[in-house]
Amino acid sequence: MKAIWNNQVIAESDETIVVERNHYFPAESVNKEFIKESGTRTTCPWKGEARYYTLTVDGQENKDAAWYYPQTKPLANNIRNYIAFWKGVEISE
């Protein structure tokens, strides 16, 4: 699977985990050149606190377009530190 935004492959892996129709990519499959930690936090009742990344490609930003759970609740342990995308990021094979 690939996560593509602004014509750049942000992440690529054959080891994604699908939860609630979102592909979660292993952290090591994400190109760190394109992501920057954001201060945004949200809470999911069964997964825990999500933290966000802003994507930057060719000078364009996509604020909070990726998220991950550094500490998960027990039911979501399989996606701890995996990264998912939204806000126009295309997920394709």
Short recap of the structure:
The chain is an all-beta fold and 93 residues long. It has strands at residues 2-5, 8-12, 17-19, 22-24, 35-44, 48-57, 60-68, 83-85, 90-92. The protein has a single domain (2-92), classed as Metal Binding Protein, Guanine Nucleotide Exchange Factor, Chain A (Beta Complex), CATH 2.170.150.40.
Main sheet: strand order: 5-6-7-8
**Portion in strands:** over 45%
Whole-number total of structural domains:
1
What form results from the Cα inertia axes? globular
CATH class reads Mainly Beta
Instruction: Please tell me how large the radius of gyration is.
Output: 12 Å
CATH fold category name? Metal Binding Protein, Guanine Nucleotide Exchange Factor, Chain A
Question: Would you give an account of this structure?
Answer:
There is one protein chain. The chain has 93 residues and is mostly beta strands. The protein has one domain: Domain of unknown function (DUF427) (Metal Binding Protein, Guanine Nucleotide Exchange Factor, Chain A, Beta Complex), CATH 2.170.150. It contains no helices and nine strands. It has strands spanning 2-5, 8-12, 17-19, 22-24, 35-44, 48-57, 60-68, 83-85, 90-92. The strands form three sheets. It has a four-stranded antiparallel sheet, with no helix packed on it. A three-stranded antiparallel sheet has the order 2-1-9, with no helix packed on it. A two-stranded antiparallel ribbon has the order 3-4. It is globular, with a radius of gyration of 12 Å. The mean pLDDT is 98.
